[in-house]
Amino acid sequence: MTLKPDVIVTGGGSECPLALKNATTTIPIVFINISDPVDLGFMKSLAHPGGNITGLSNFLLELPGKQLELLKEVIPKTSLVGVISPSLSAPASKARIRELEAVAKSLAVLLQVVGVQEEKELEALFDRATKNRLDAIMILPSPPLGQDNKRLIHLATKSQLPTILTGTRSADQGALISYGPSVLDLYHRAAVYVDKILKGTKAADVPVERPTKFELVINLKTAQQIGLTVPPNVLARADRVIR
């Protein structure tokens, strides 16, 4: 680190924060919008980071369950949902799936959970989804194919399957619903972290915070394409509707 900055701010995925963490143990690092930092190995505790890195996580254990509830509200007949996870063995993925299964049971919804890590697996996955007559597809946070789910969303729409994802960009790419943390709000809150550190607080003493503001986006173009009517009460709650 030849520039010797007072603080480094980084966002979008875990690769850059990890590289920075490996590059310096003294310069404070504030990350924005990454998944569970404990699971990723950045620290042992959110409340007490203990090192030179802290920030704002997008991880919320109960988020997939809330997404499933929303999906059931939009499509009341939903009884069989395919769940795509980037991993079935990572602790964070296991925790999300356990939480999701509990919500699914309360909603009388059956889940088919599949781990997908490479794009070449998608064609076969959606062939099976069509044969199994799934009602919808959920993609868990930390997408399996990077931040761009365009290919996955295209296949889902082609298969006439409603999709719900976390990132708001997913609805712009063609997903029926996106519901998740407001990335803009996380960036705004990061300014408070930087201010604290510049005023002398150590990153080790600044707890990692989880999302508090969420955004719901509905893509009515996709709804029309797959022959679905979104209930007016859901549209009224949407932060943005793509027409």
Describe this structure in words.
The chain has 243 residues and is an alpha/beta fold. It has 2 domains: 8-59 and 183-212, Rossmann fold (3-Layer(aba) Sandwich); 63-180 and 215-242, Rossmann fold (3-Layer(aba) Sandwich), CATH 3.40.50.2300. The chain has 9 helices and 11 strands. The strands form 2 sheets. The protein has a 7-stranded mixed sheet with strand order 5-4-6-8-9-10-11, sandwiched between helices. A 3-stranded parallel sheet has the order 1-2-3, sandwiched between helices. The mean pLDDT is 89.
Topology:
Layout: E1 8-11, H1 15-23, E2 29-34, E3 53-57, H2 63-74, E4 80-85, H3 91-106, E5 110-115, H4 122-131, E6 136-139, E7 144-147, H5 150-158, E8 163-165, H6 168-173, E9 177-181, H7 183-198, E10 214-219, H8 220-225, H9 232-237, E11 240-242
Parallel strand pairs: 1-2, 2-3, 4-5, 4-6, 6-8, 8-9, 10-11
Antiparallel strand pairs: 9-10
